Structure formats: C-alpha cells, structure tokens
Amino acid sequence: MPPRPAIAGVQAALRAATPSTWRATASPATSLISRYSTSTATQETSSSSGPVPVPPESPNYIKLHEPPQSSEPRLPPIRGHVPVPRQVFTSRDGNRPRRVSPAYVSTIKPKTARQVAGKRPRNDHEARRWELAETRRKALTEGLQGLWDRKRTHDKEERRRSFTRARNNQAAASRPERPDEVLTSSSIGAHVLVTEVPLDPNRFEDAEKAKLAHDAKQAVKADARRDALCQMYMAAGKFIVDEDELEARIHSVFGENQREAAESIWNLHGEPPTLAAEAANVHYNVADIRRKDSNRTVLRQKAVAEALTGGKL
To answer: Can you give the pTM of this predicted structure?
Structure first.
C-alpha cells in the first residue's frame, strides 16, 4: 500500500492552486488525464478489497474476548412496545389445568342440539358449518395442549438452569484455593485468623466498679440539684411578687430626692478607715488581708446554718 501524503503538503498544494489557476490551466489533455486517473483509482479501489488497517488508538487494535457477565441471552433491541403475554394457565389450576381437559373445549365450543342428538345436517351449508366448528374445536384443543407442553418444558428448563447455577456457585464458593493463589497471597499470621473474642474473667467486678462510680456521680448531681433548689428557696424571700413591692423598689432606686440628706461622699460609703484600725489589721495571708472580720463571721454562720439545715444557703 503506497504511503499516505502528509496533511501539511496537501494543504499547501490546495492553497497554491486557486480557482483562476484551475480555469487557466484547464485543457482537453488535462481533463483526459483526470478522467483516466479517476477511472484508475476506481479500478484500484474495487480491486483492492483487503482488510482495512486499524490504527493503534482504536479499541479494536487488539482483539480481546469479552468475559461472560451474565447467563441471560442478549436480545436485540426491538422498536415499539410488545404486549405482555397472558397467563393462560394459572397457578391455582395445579398440575392439570382445566383448559387442557376435553370438558373445557366442550364448554366453550358446545355442539348444537342436532349434533348431540346424532341427527344429520339439514343441508350442505349446515354440514359445512358443522365441519368448520369441529375444525375450530380441534385447533383449540391442539393449541391449548401445545401451550401446556411448552410451558412445562420452559419451567423444567428454568428449574434445571437455576439448579445448575446454584450448584456451580456453591462449588466455586467451597473450592480450595489454587496453588498460584496460595503462593502469591500475602502472609497472614495465625493470631489474625482467630476472630473469636474471649470473655473477660473480671467482667463482673468491672461492672460493679462502674456501677459504684455511676452511683457516686449521680449522687453528686443530686446534691448539686438540691443545693440549687435551696438557694432558689432562700433567694425567693427577696422576690417581688406584688405591685406594692415593685412600686417601693422603683421608688427606692429611682427616687427623686434619695441623695438629698447626704453632705459628702462619706455619707454614701461610710467613714474612712483610721491609722489605728489599719495598724491593727495586719495579716500575713493574702486571703486574710482581703477578708474582713465581718465577712469571716458571715461565712462561719452560713457554714453552721448549712450544717444544721442540711442544705446550701
């Protein structure tokens, strides 16, 4: 096969050859040569019917066999909608459906009273009708029997395929490993293969300890909840519950002449401490320095009251 010309060379040749050049250089000899080359190319194309080379970038460059992914046959696509086939033989009929019995055909296509009585037809037209009716009965009987035989064959083949598929799957699942799989598989320690979790011998003691810890935590929560209730109960004595108390509180806080009797800042915060009091209040602990005697007395009385009442104040 001759080598194909480069795309760049073909584009340059087409760009150089303009339509005016074609018209100027056109001659009978040129047309004859073009017809001859066209006929020769047609003969070569028709004569060379060899295989077309497949480029390497094509998926068909290397032929690979497709592995079977399903046992179901791949049916070609059909345009349109195919009606759903009827269930001629229902499951309630059992192994011998009623449509296969002769009584079914006799019920659907009954004979006339003259045929049942064994009389002869009156004329040729009636004889022809009797003959056609008998032909329809025979065709119906044979059709139903054929459908029943085909259904039994289909069900038997389906059961056989299902049993074979299940047996093959079971055999593939229970087969031993191949030598190549054994030799190429990663090493797994024997202790990793043991997946059984042994029972903890100290599980009951641990459960008892966990129960005691849980009870202690719940007791702490209960004490904190009881102390919070006691604090709320003690603080409830200062709650404003009626309009008179609200009005008195507003008057004391937002009164107009509440600072009228004060002469200096000492009336608001009390007298300043003297040097004798400061010299007497000498401590070596930072907490004691910041805490006055009155504060210590209040805290001591509060602790005694909490011990007596059993609740936090």
So the answer is: 0.35
